[in-house]
């Protein structure tokens, strides 16, 4: 991984809520480090700010993307995924703690994806909340199904699994360690466990049914 240096320029998000949890830094060798250590969406890392900061990095050829996130808004995440996928720079993804939910989709832009032994990735079916009558509920359920259909190819392309295989894993809220991600094709390299794995401090984790106790 290219190292940052004293002459690197920093392009932090301007959102006061993000503080240091979302950071982009570009060095003098056409590489950049990006850290997503927050939820995805208006309460954390927004697509608008992410893309603005990404464009501000200028002509870079390689991105080191570090992720420790419980996920968040699916449409914000899709916009971030697409911005990275079409950027043109090669991307190495490092899962520094947890890449859960929409954050795991964003991780799929990496080639390679690198995970220490004691980090996790989680994939699950899209979910949300709405109100209204029975017809409103059916319409919302159809929307969730369509969202899942949009997400499936990102996992399938990375892993080589069929969309049916991925759909079954989503339905089961599948949590995977670094080694399990490697075995299933979600990661390309596993490294020794870091001394202290970053934890997720987010109410979003209350929505997860099978989250390992070791990272709560």
Automatic annotation (TrEMBL):
Source organism, top-level taxon: Bacteria
UniProt-listed InterPro entries: ClpP, ClpP/crotonase-like_dom_sf, ClpP/TepA
Can you name one GO molecular function term for this protein?
ATP-dependent peptidase activity
User: Which keywords are on file for this protein?
Assistant: Cytoplasm, Hydrolase, Protease, Serine protease
> GO terms for biological process?
protein quality control for misfolded or incompletely synthesized proteins
The text of the family note is: Belongs to the peptidase S14 family.
The protein, known as: ATP-dependent Clp protease proteolytic subunit
């Amino acid at each position: 991984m290219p190292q940052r240096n004293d002459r690197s320029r920093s392009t932090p998000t301007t959102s006061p809520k993000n503080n240091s949890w979302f950071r982009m830094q570009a060095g003098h060798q056409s590489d950049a480090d990006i850290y997503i250590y927050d939820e995805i969406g208006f309460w954390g890392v927004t697509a608008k700010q992410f893309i603005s900061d990404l464009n501000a990095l200028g002509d870079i050829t390689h991105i080191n993307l570090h992720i420790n996130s419980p996920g968040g808004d699916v449409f914000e995440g899709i916009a971030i995924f697409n911005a990275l996928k079409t950027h043109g720079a090669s991307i190495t993804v490092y899962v520094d703690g947890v890449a859960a939910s929409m954050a795991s989709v964003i991780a799929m832009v990496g080639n390679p994806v690198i995970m220490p032994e004691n980090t996790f990735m989680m994939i699950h079916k899209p979910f949300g909340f709405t109100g209204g009558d029975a017809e409103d509920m059916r319409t919302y359920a159809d929307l969730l199904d369509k969202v899942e259909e949009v997400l499936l190819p990102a996992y399938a392309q990375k892993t080589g699994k069929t969309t049916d295989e991925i759909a079954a894993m989503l339905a089961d809220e599948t949590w995977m360690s670094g080694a399990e991600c490697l075995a299933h094709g979600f990661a390309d390299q596993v490294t020794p466990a870091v001394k202290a794995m970053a934890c997720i401090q987010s109410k979003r984790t209350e929505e997860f049914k099978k989250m390992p106790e070791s990272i709560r």
